[in-house]
Each structure stands twice: as C-alpha cells, then as structure tokens.
Amino acid sequence: MPRTFRNTLGGTFVVLACLAAFSAAAGARPVYLDDRHPGDDARSILWEPKQAAFEKLQAALALPPTAARDTQDDFDVHYYDIDIEIDEGPETVAGSVVMRATSTIEGLSTVILDLYDNMTVDSVAHDGAPASYTHSSDLVTVTLNSAVNTGGDLEIEIVYHGAPVDDALNFSTHDGTPIISSLSEPIGARQWWPCKDTPADKADSARIALTVDDAYIAVSNGMLISEVDNGATKTYTWFESYPITTYLISVAITNYSSWTDYYTYGRDIMPIENYVYPEHYSNAVEDLNITAEAIGALAEVFGEYPFIDERYGHAIFPWGGAMEHQTCTSYGRVLIRGDHYYDWILVHELGHQWWGDWVTCETWDDIWLNEGFASYSEALWFEHVGGESEYDDYVESYDAYGYFDGPIYDPWSTFNRTVYDKGALVLHMLRRIVELDGGPQDHYPVDGLVAVMADYGAAHSYGTAVTADLQTVFEAHYGSGMDWFFQPWIYGENRPDYRWSWLASDQGPPYGVMVHVEQVQSNAGLFTMPIDIKIHTTAGDLLVVAWNDQLSQDFFFDVDAAVTDVSFDPGNWILKYVTEISTGAQEDVAPGALSLSAPAGVIGGDVRLVFSVPTTGHVELAVFDIAGRRVTTLTDGVAPSGTHEVVWNGSGSDGAPIASGVYFARLVADSGTASRKLLLVR
Ligand SMILES: [Zn+2]
Fold first, then answer.
1. How far apart are CA 451 and CA 446, in angstroms?
2. What backbone torsions phi and psi does residue 529 show, to the nearest 5 degrees?
3. Is 590 contained in some domain?
4. Whether residue 193 sits in one domain with residue 121
5. Does 409 lie in the same domain as 302?
6. How far is the centre of ligand 1, averaged over its atoms, from the C-alpha of 112 (Å)?
7. How remote is the CA of residue 322 from the centroid of ligand 1, in Å?
8. How confident is the model at residue 27 (pLDDT cuts 50, 70, 90)?
9. How far is the CA of 425 from the centre of ligand 1 (A)?
10. Ligand 1 center to residue 276 CA distance, Å?
C-alpha cells in the first residue's frame, strides 16, 4: 500500500527535538515542604477578606461625580506628609496631611482630595495660607489662593480629625491588647487620611509620623527615622523614600515583639524586620524564617528586591489574609502556626513587592497585574525549593475548582479566583510561549520569562502599568503581535475544551503520526495556542508542537520508530479541558460475537470494510466524524450470518468527497457493536 501520511508545512507545527529524560527534581526536599499546596478553599484566604471589605466599602461609598474625579488629573502628587495621632480608646485619628504636587494644566484653581464625610476637616491651607474649601460627597474641594500653571508646585495642608468607619483603619484586640492596623486597598485610604486616592498617581516619597500610646510600637512603610517619647505617647516617624501609592501606605500599632533578620545580596545586607504578637513569638520566628531565602528566590526571576535600600518585613494584624504593604507586609494573625503551613501566602505578599508595589496596576481593571503575578510567585517558590515536580503540582492547584468565572481584565469582582489563579496560569502559559524558539521540552526554563519581567519592570519601575504595557513587552520578546493570546485569555473568558485523537502508521520508517485536534467550547471562541504533543515510540519519546489555530485541525508528523502512544500537552502548559476521543474507539461491545476490520491507518482511495455477524439480523454500518456526526451510512438492513464486505469510496451521504481526517466506522448488529478508527488522507 502506498504511504499516505505526510508532513504538512506552513507553520502548523514545529519539529522535532529528541528529548532527554525528565530532569530530576533539584536538591533535597526541604523539611518544611510536605505537600502543603493550598489546592482547595484555602486559596480563597487571599482574596475573600479583600473582597468582603471592598463590597462593604462600595456599599457605603457615595461615589463622587466623574467630572470631579477627572479634575484630579490636573495635578501630579510628589509627596505626602502624614502626621497623625491614633487613639485606640475612642478609636480616633487626629492630625494633618500635607500634599505636595505639580499642576499639569494652565491656571489650576481647584484641588480635589478624597476624604470620607464623617471625618471633620478643621482647616485647609494652600502654600501655608488658609484656603477656602468644601467637604461633601467624600471629597475635599480646595480653592487655591492663586492659580497654578503647568509645572508649578503647590502644597495643600489639611488638618482633620474623626473616628474612621468601614475598617480600612481597624481597631481590634489580640490577647486583650489593642491592635490598630490598616488595609486600604483598593480605595480605603480616604477613610482615614485625605489623599488623591488612585493607584495611578504615586507620590515620590512619603513621611508617616504616628503618635500612639507609649505602650505600643507604631509600624509603617520605609525606614524608622525617629522615635520620640512624649510622656504618655510616643511618636514613630517613618520615611518611605521610594515612590508609593495611597493604598499601600499602612499603619500597624500594638505591643509588638520584633527581631531583625538579614537578606544578603552581593556583598551587602538588607534588614528584614518582623513585628509580631508577643504571645506567638516563637511560632512567628519559625514561620517567617524563610523570608530571606524567598527574597533571593524571587529576585532570581524578577530582579533584585525593589526596595533594597530600605527593608522588608512583616507586621502581624488581625485580618484573615495578608496585605502587601510596601516594605512591610501586614500578615494575618491566623497565618502564624509555627509549621510553615502558610509559606505560600508569605511568598505571595513578597511577590507583590515587585508586582503591585514596585510596578502598580494603573487602574483596578488591571488588578491581575498585581494579583496574578503575586500568585504565580508562589509556584516559583515551590519550584525553588522542590524542583519541577513541585512546580507542576502547584500549578495544578491553581485550577483546583476546574472553572473560572468571567474575564481576568475588568473582573466582576476586583478580588476573585479568576484574577488570582487564572492570572497565575496565564503567566504559566506565557512562560512556555516565550520559550517557543527554544524548541519543545518537558519543562521550560524560566529564562524567557525572566527577560520579559526585567524589561517590563524596567519600563514601569516605581510607576504604574496597564495590561497593554505587559503585552507590548511580551510581543517584543516573542517577535510579533500577541493579540491571539491576550484577547482570549485576558480580555475573554473560559478556556479551550479540546477533543483530540491520534493515529499512527504501522509501517516505516518513517512512521507517520496524525494528531487530530478540535475545540468544542461553546462559551468562548477559538483559542490559538501552541500545543505540545509527545510521541512515544519504541526508540524513545519525541516532543513536537502543534500550532493550533483552527477549531478543527489535523497535524502530521514523521518519526523514525513505531509509535506506542501519544500525549497531549504532557507538561500541562495549557489551561484547558481535554478529552481523548480515540479511547475505546477500537472496542467491541460483544467481543467475539461479531467483527469489523478496517485498514490500519493507511487510506488512499476506497476503504474496504469487512464485517461478520453470527446470526441473521438487522445490521447498520455507518461512518462518523471525530465529533460524532454521521458522515454516511454504508449498510442499513437485514444481513445474513457470515462475512460481508463493504467498500466506501470516501464520500459523505451527499456524494461529495469528505475532508481528510479521522473517522470511525461503527457497526451495530443485534449481537453487539464494534467500532474502528479510519484515517482518510487525500
Ligand atoms: Zn495578593
């Protein structure tokens, strides 16, 4: 018989690299890593507290008119000086905030800042002189004493006091002691201090002076520059010398116990300062002792820790989850157990120091640039400590629920599973895609992603980014446009649902292999993806790549040894549903009672089908395509017992020749059924 397999050209696949065995997992398994992948409801601890707070906040917030908010674009903030006394007794805040900014328009005459109406403004000054203002709709509208032109500087001071509501500044207790802490993301800063409350405008630096009961330590961002004893109170003054956005400015105040670890880089060291509740000090020392190693591990992928001239650390607070406050993550009390159970959350928040704090999502629609990246940091950590198999297991855990709801961009809720976990899986996929030029392999190096993240970070260092900015950087490394990826995966919803089958010739070499791929999802359009295919042969395994850009597509490969099996995306690089159609296709339901034979995978012109039935009775022999649609019926009537032959000319029921592909001949007789796979190649 003639060989009818062929190689198709024109970019449908990239061939063919011989594969070494899977590389062994790196190093010994750390004692603190014994399959503690969240994988279930546990991951929701990352977003549910934020989501609940945000929903409460949205319900309470009288959203200001768009026009008023737009005028905030008229000035660019440089600096905040927050000087407040926080009193746990009446749960109040009192003090002043100075904002320095530059006008971005000619004749700027009005400056609008965000501050909840329940807070009382005592006075406002512009450039040191009293200025008139109004305070309503959660906005402080300041009339400048004189207009400021483009590039001109202005300073606004607001003196205020009040009892904050809605928990962005939270008053609680631990072990009978007050704990005051903040979590302002996304728009809660305005609950307790006046500011231009948007992630799009970072101050270049900020000073945070906190006056508190002298029994407590007040922790904030950056470096502690002074600690002044006022008698009954103490004033802790912190200075963040790196750019910072409003939602990342934080306070954490209680009777902390603290200690300092060090992260070593080059020939230098950076302090890691941890502030924990005294009652779980020893457990905290245990749980937080991975921090230096984790900084190093993430720095290998993301570049050096972005606030290296200052510090990193943790301050315990009463929330269920954690919050990536710049240079000092607020870490939930419940996460301290002394057993490293929540290492993945520690790493998540650490990852935010790069993605969220160093490069901040410019709008809340782009929140996945923070959360997807931080979530992906978790897998990178497990790869660091446990090698490729740990990475693979961890990636699987992102999809523990098996579905994602809505798009990643502009999600239905700012903090939800799709943003975090599908966001992480998108980066997992992109890691593989930027390695396309490196040829197929079982486990892709992280080098390509490292290069992309370096450029993305450099382009938006200490600034903000939107999703299109990330796409631009990926496209520069990929070498051409990537709408085919970003549109369905970031802006679209759901995932591909693959049906696939394979067939190999039994003669060679070369042996031909055909892989048929269909996408059958009804809740999304086409996903164009490179799909890794592993061809197992008697001489070893080969990895090939099928560039799948049609809903129904066949791929043809030649190999040098007989094929024993074929695997579809064996490295699990694609978020997908997948079903192998060929399973059971050769099955006879009533074995021995009847038979159907068909040529084994080599079909040029007519197809000769032979069947036998043990008894006289009704017989139907029909051909179906791989999706189960009937192509043609060859026999439908009473057949006597014995052997019969039917020749199919490769036409459908309408008499027209059918397309090349995989089909099934199916025999249904009184005594049972039998199916055979047919490959038709023209
Ligand atoms: Zn996060």
1. 9
2. -150, 145
3. no
4. yes
5. yes
6. 29
7. 8
8. very low
9. 15
10. 21
Which residues, at least 6 apart from 656, have a Cβ–Cβ distance to it below 8 Å? none
Q: Tokens 């094929």 label which residue? A: 563
The domain total for the chain is 4
Distance from the alpha carbon of residue 398 to the mean position of ligand 1, in angstroms: 14
C-alpha of residue 357 to centroid of ligand 1, in Å: 11
What residue ranges in 299-410 does DSSP mark as E strands? 312-317, 322-323, 329-332, 360-361
- Ligand 1 centroid to Cα of residue 372, in Å, is 8
572: left (phi over 0), alpha (psi -120 to 50) or beta: left
- On the question of pLDDT at 12 being above 50, the answer is no
Length of the chain: 682
Confidence of residue 522 (pLDDT cuts 50, 70, 90): very high
563 sits in which H/E element: strand 563-568
How far is the centre of ligand 1, averaged over its atoms, from the C-alpha of 185 (Å)?
Answer: 10
CA 38–ligand 1 middle distance (angstroms): 15
Q: How confident is the model at residue 306 (pLDDT cuts 50, 70, 90)?
A: very high
Average pLDDT over the chain, rounded to an integer: 87
**436 CA to middle of ligand 1, Å?**
29
Say how far apart CA 80 and CA 93 lie, in whole Å. Answer: 17
Q: pLDDT tens for residues 143-194?
A: 999 999 999 999 999 999 999 999 999 999 999 999 999 999 999 999 999 9
Residues 420 and 544 in one domain: no
State the pTM of this model: 0.83
The two structure tokens encoding residue 6? 């062929």
Tokens representing residue 511 in the block: 């042996």
In this predicted structure, which of 419-428, 537-546, 582-591, 617-626 has the lowest mean pLDDT? 582-591
- pLDDT for the residue 38: 53
Task: Calculate how far, in angstroms, residue 257's C-alpha sits from the geometric centre of ligand 1.
Answer: 25
pLDDT at 574: 97
Q: Give dist(CA 449, CA 429) in Å, integer.
A: 10
Asked if residue 28 is part of any domain, the answer here is no
Instruction: Using the structure block, give the residue that is written with the tokens 């032109």.
Output: 149
Q: Is 11's pLDDT higher than 60?
A: no
Could you tell me the distance, in angstroms and rounded to a whole number, from the CA of residue 403 to the centre of ligand 1?
A: 20
**pLDDT score, position 594:** 66
Say whether both 414 and 292 belong to one domain: yes
Q: How far is the CA of 375 from the centre of ligand 1 (A)?
A: 7
The domain in which residue 334 lies consists of: 33-60+258-493
171 shares a domain with 272: no
The dihedral formed by the CA atoms of 276, 280, 286 and 289, expressed in degrees to the nearest 10: 0
Average pLDDT over residues 503-511: 78
Q: What is the pLDDT of residue 15?
A: 26
What CATH number is attached to the domain comprising 606?
2.60.40.4070
Question: In this structure, is residue 623 part of a structural domain?
Answer: yes
SS3 451: helix
What is the Å distance from ligand 1's center to 422 Cα?
A: 13
| CATH number of the domain residue 186 falls in | 2.60.40.1730
Cβ atoms 338, 298 nearer than 8 A: no
Q: How far apart are CA 262 and CA 191, in angstroms?
A: 35
Integer Rg of the chain from CA: 32
Cα 335 to middle of ligand 1, angstroms: 15
Alpha-carbon distance of 54 to 35, in angstroms, equals 32
- What are the C-alpha distances in Å from 291 to residues 221, 254, 274, 281? 18, 22, 10, 16
